[in-house]
Automatic annotation (TrEMBL):
<dbReference type="GO" id="GO:0005829">
    <property type="term" value="C:cytosol"/>
</dbReference>
<protein>
    <submittedName>
        <fullName>AAA family ATPase</fullName>
    </submittedName>
</protein>
<dbReference type="InterPro" id="IPR027417">
    <property type="entry name" value="P-loop_NTPase"/>
</dbReference>
<dbReference type="InterPro" id="IPR025669">
    <property type="entry name" value="AAA_dom"/>
</dbReference>
<dbReference type="GO" id="GO:0016887">
    <property type="term" value="F:ATP hydrolysis activity"/>
</dbReference>
<feature type="domain" description="AAA">
    <location>
        <begin position="1"/>
        <end position="149"/>
    </location>
</feature>
<keyword id="KW-0547">Nucleotide-binding</keyword>
<dbReference type="InterPro" id="IPR050625">
    <property type="entry name" value="ParA/MinD_ATPase"/>
</dbReference>
<keyword id="KW-0067">ATP-binding</keyword>
<dbReference type="Pfam" id="PF13614">
    <property type="entry name" value="AAA_31"/>
</dbReference>
<dbReference type="GO" id="GO:0009898">
    <property type="term" value="C:cytoplasmic side of plasma membrane"/>
</dbReference>
<dbReference type="GO" id="GO:0005524">
    <property type="term" value="F:ATP binding"/>
</dbReference>
<dbReference type="GO" id="GO:0051782">
    <property type="term" value="P:negative regulation of cell division"/>
</dbReference>
Amino acid sequence: MQIWAVGGGKGGTGKSLVSNGLGIRLAERGCQVILVDADYGGPNQHTYCGLRKPASTLAHFFDRRMPLEEIAMETHIEGLRLIPGNVNSANTDNFNTAQKQKLFRHIKQLRADHVILDLGAGTQYDVLDTFLLADVQVGVVAPDAMSIENFYLFLKNVQYRLLCNVLSWTGLKERAKSVWRDRAEHGISTSRDWIVHLRTLSPEFSEVLNREHARLQPHIVLNQVREYRQVEMGLAVESAVTKLFRIEATYAGHIRYDTDLWQQFGRELPAISHGTASTLHQDLERVTEAILDAKRRQEASL
Ligand SMILES: Nc1ncnc2c1ncn2[C@@H]1O[C@H](COP(=O)(O)OP(=O)(O)O)[C@@H](O)[C@H]1O
Ligand SMILES: [Mg+2]
């Protein structure tokens, strides 16, 4: 089973649209797919799926210990099931660490070929940890400066969170803090110097950090493209991310802005599945294919 996470920082860029589209495309290929509405504070996957008032949601997992498999509901698309977010209140927002770990453990045990996590906006730990859980990390950006800026900030936070996690796992957290406090003594002025120093303190830390860092390979999707010349922005983001964060990012392609999409909601039908000739249908197919190809290449090179 592969876990996908669709994130990117800014709200409104199309994370939910892309998660939904990936889910539909993978299901149409004959895979068993479960979409999880992991936008804990603002769930709307059920609306993309054209489903009204889900009977059970993630709140039932947290409050009533209902198994995720039971919450997963059929959608209008064969092979695609949905675990809706808590649509009634915001009490799945800011759950505690034990609850989060329990949710992650149960997500890993789901019976499906692909589990797709639709993330919320922002850089809260819950969002970052859910992104880090995934085998396939998808970053959605819109072709505008604010969205791209927020995506860089998102990745910076992901990278920092990953470092903190590795420090905890390897028991180096307190030591790392004290090194940073006395950084002048150690000749450390940047966070990069700090990490180099920490690596000399523990080969285990260094090894785990390398391993976890190598797993950070975001697939960039440029959504809401209105003009052809915007397409190149995806490549620019790919090369900036590779350079800035020293990670292997790949541009999975663009999705055009669909002027009819807004009319497809509230009809108890999947919103983005209208007309197989639609640009959304074609673009999502191309992007899904590109991500699967890149993933195969990454796995072959390991
Ligand atoms: N390619 C697109 N064409 C037309 N409308 C889009 C497109 N992508 C997103 N939208 C619309 O923009 C809004 C935000 O998209 P959404 O997927 O909810 O973003 P996010 O999950 O990142 O907050 C929604 O109303 C959605 O229907
Ligand atoms: Mg969303």
